[in-house]
Each structure stands twice: as structure tokens, then as C-alpha cells.
Amino acid sequence: MSDHDHEHVHDDEERRAEHEQELELQARRMLALARIRQYGDPVLRMKARVVETVDDDVRRLVQRMTDLMHEAQGVGLAATQVGVLRRLFVFSDEGEDRVLVNPVITKRSEATEVDEEGCLSLRDVLVPVERASAVTIEGLDANGEPVKLELELPSSRIVLHELDHLDGVLILDRTDDQSRREALARLRPQPVLGAR
Ligand code: NI
Questions:
Q1: Which pTM value belongs to this model?
Q2: 3 state SS for the chain
Q3: Ligand 1 geometric centre to CA of 170 (Å)
Q4: Distance between Cα 145 and ligand 1 center (Å)
Q5: Res 4 pLDDT > 90
């Protein structure tokens, strides 16, 4: 066997390993999505309640939601989406995991930007949504300490999206009529051929 052949075998093995890793990530993503409430679940339309105390239960929930967000390959996840009606969400702030308990927007820019937005509760739907380019958001961290974040896009978009979830608002409510119609058509359960 020549060196050249060796290299080929090596490439093949590497490619197979990469492919297997991709499949595993995909499988993990599907499992994670199955644990996230999906469109049609009435809980997604409910208003979450203020968190009274940031205790160990809350911290466990935050850990579970952070893991789930990563496994689902998302950039944000609200408690509502795991069926817990409490005002908190986790998000990825340019790669850094953050949590906000009882979040409130205290400042928002006049400037806005329209961009495609997806949601872990709406699977493959992407719709254009207009959001403030910059926001100041205040709340508590996982230790119950006050935090104040000044965020720009894309983080401003993410926190506004997650905050909406805590009020039962979805991107479908924030997009234009045509995009909403198209999204709803995709979300409608497809008839199973042959089933009568
Ligand atoms: Ni969402």
C-alpha cells in the first residue's frame, strides 16, 4: 500500500467519523425538540408569572433549559417553552450563556431592523420580524443578583423574542400578513396519504 492509499483510507475514516458525529448531533437535536413545547400547545399562549425567589429549583430549571437550548442548537429558550409559566429565559449572548429572571426592557432604540426569525417551538418556520436594534434589559441572574445588559443585534432581537414568549406572544404575531399565512400553512398538520 502506498502512502497515497494510506491517506485515502485516512480521509475516508475521517469523513465517516464526521458524518457519524453529524448524525448524532441531529438525533440529539430531534430529542431536544421533542422536549420543547411545540406550536399548538396552549401553554405557549399563556402569560408567565413573576419569580418570587431565585432558589435551587430555579437554578436547576436554568441548567436544564441551558442544556436543552444547546442540544436543540438554539440561541434562546423561555421557561414557557418547557411548560413552566415563570418569567425567565436563557440565551446565548454572542456565544456566552446568560439567564434573565423577571426581565424588563428599560430602554429601546428608535432604530429597528427587520430580519428572519425562527423559534424552537415552530420548527422550520422562518418569518421576518421587526425588532429594536438596541435594548437595555434588566432582571436577576441565577444568584438572584440584579443585572442590567445593554444589548445590540443580534442579542437585542433574541431577548425581545424570548420576552415575548413570557407573554404568550409568538413570531407569528409579529410578522406581516403574508408571511403569517405562509407559516400557518406550513404548520397545519399534513394529511397522511392513504389514511382514511
Ligand atoms: Ni421562540
A1: 0.88
A2: CCHHHHHHHHHHHHHHHHHHHHHHHHHHHHHHHHCCCCCCCHHHHCCCECCCCCCHHHHHHHHHHHHHHHHCCCCEEEHHHHCCCECEEEEEECCEEEEEEEEEEEEECCCEEEEEECCCCCCCCCEEEEEECEEEEEEECCCCCEEEEEEECCHHHHHHHHHHHHCCCCHHHCCCHHHHHHHHHHHCCCCCCCCC
A3: 7
A4: 25
A5: no
